[in-house]
Amino acid sequence: MLDPDQGLRVLDCKATDHEYLHKDFHGALCYGIKYLDDHFGPEATTAYLRQVGRSYFAPLSQQLRDEGLAALEKHWREIFTKEGGKFSLEIQNSVLTLTVHECPAITHLKKINQLFTPRFCETTVVVNETVCGEAGYKSSCHYEPGEGRCVQKFWKEKE
Predict the structure, then answer these.
(1) Helix (H) / strand (E) containing 140
(2) What is the predicted pLDDT for the residue at 4?
(3) What residue ranges do the domains of the chain occupy?
(4) Distance CA 11, CA 31 (A)
(5) Into which CATH architecture does domain 22-156 fall?
(6) Pick from 84, 87, 80: nearest CA to 150
(7) Alpha-carbon dihedral of residues 86, 91, 93, 99, nearest 10 degrees?
(8) Do residues 21 and 12 make contact, with C-beta atoms less than 8 angstroms apart?
(9) Which residues of 25-51 are buried (b: 16+ CB within 10 A; e: fewer)?
């Protein structure tokens, strides 16, 4: 709408009105990891990622506590579907396995020839460990840096 007094056009829209653009965040994350590693060391980067896991992903940790592995399954399905990743999910013997056949983040970074740090995939490892640890769960992630494939597993920590 046009504000006649200021000659400005005001757009009234919601994020859902536009294409999901989270993929570009991954490039910024690569630069951030490289910066932290270069200036403060890998331990500082890990501490930062743990804080992200505890704060930003606190709602996911709570859902995991409340709903169990179904919460993580739903989370991963939504994220990988939104980002166009190729993946499979399976719960067997109380273990959720996320097999990433083609990581949308790494695929995007390679496509646009964006900086890639070999420690990029460590964000997944550290954030998963933190989110799961906050909810009494464990996780693992097996990958080769930059390959764009991994196998992530999640299970309830034994008491």
Answers:
(1) strand 137-143
(2) 59
(3) 22-156
(4) 32
(5) 2-Layer Sandwich (3.30)
(6) 87
(7) 10
(8) no
(9) ebbebbebbbebbeeeeeeebbebbbe
| ∠ CA 114-39-22, rounded to 5° | 35
Residue 59 CA, distance from chain mean position: 14
Annotate 106-125 with DSSP letters as a single string: HHHHHHTT----TTTTHHHH
Lookup: tokens for 119: 């420690």
**Coil, helix or strand at residue 148:** coil
**What is the mean pLDDT for each group of 10 consecutive residues in the chain (159 residues)?**
63 66 78 94 96 96 97 96 93 97 91 84 95 98 92 91
pLDDT of amino acid 149: 94
Q: Which structure tokens are listed for 41?
A: 């060391």
Q: How many residues would you count in the chain?
A: 159
Token code pair at residue 78: 């939504």
